[in-house]
Amino acid sequence: MADTNGRNSIVGQNYGAAYNQGGYNYSQNKDKENYDKSNSGQKGYYYDARTNITANGGLYDEFSLNEFSSTKIRHGFIRKVYSILSLQLLLTFGCAALAVLYKPFNAFVLTYYSPLFIVGVLLSLPIMIALACAPHMARKYPSNYFILLSITLGMSLIVTLASARTNSEIFFYAFGTTAVVVIGLTIFAFQTKWDFTGWYVFLFMAFLILIVMGIIGIFVRSKAFNLVFAGISAFILSISIIVDTQLIIGGKHKKYEFSEF
């Protein structure tokens, strides 16, 4: 019995000694270096302190997400943005072309010009000002889709009203010029090394000035004033296209984060 107890004591001591190991080093770089991808010729699963659990129970590695998946995610975001933009432009162009080319619709628009203009302003301007003051509103679902729809309808209505008072030749000249400018500025924003994203605050102030000038233009009937207003508007909107494009594409410029997608 004594021998048995002694042996048991010795075994217990040896057992404890055999497993008396120090803490494991979970250094992320160390694990990356020591990970054997060729173990048994099969692909294993890498898990370390940075591996997190997604909402649906899956796993993702923050290192892999940031280094390897961010470009793919951003490309998907770019496709989404430009798809929505294409639908907006298609709706706007369709309504404007209808007002120019279809006489009954043109007569209806001109008959109710003032009420329709007020509706267009109310659908777009208050929401745009609210978004400038509280941009988090655009990140909440499904309110973001209602905001997008309201602004699109309001701006489409305003463009349609303006087009109804022009002849078809001027309308298509303006459409062609706008298309060339937008495509050219988008390509420039993709290629340039200059960062325009820091101009966002100045653009907001410039838009406020444009609103004031637009209100003044209602009462001032002058071709010179209209030309100056149109030139300033074109310049500010051109810079706005570059800034927004650089925020979307990311890269070396400041960019929208994944949470804003």
From TrEMBL:
Q: Where are the transmembrane segments?
A: 81-100, 112-133, 145-164, 170-190, 197-220, 226-249
Coiled-coil-forming residues are: none
Q: How does it sit in the membrane?
A: Multi-pass membrane protein
The subcellular location is: Membrane
Q: Which domain of life is it from?
A: Eukaryota
- What UniProt keywords apply to this chain's record, in alphabetical order? Membrane, Transmembrane, Transmembrane helix
GO CC terms of this entry: membrane
Check the record and name the InterPro entries matching this protein: Bax_inhibitor_1-related
> In which family does this protein belong, per the annotation?
Belongs to the BI1 family.
Write the protein's name.
Bax inhibitor 1
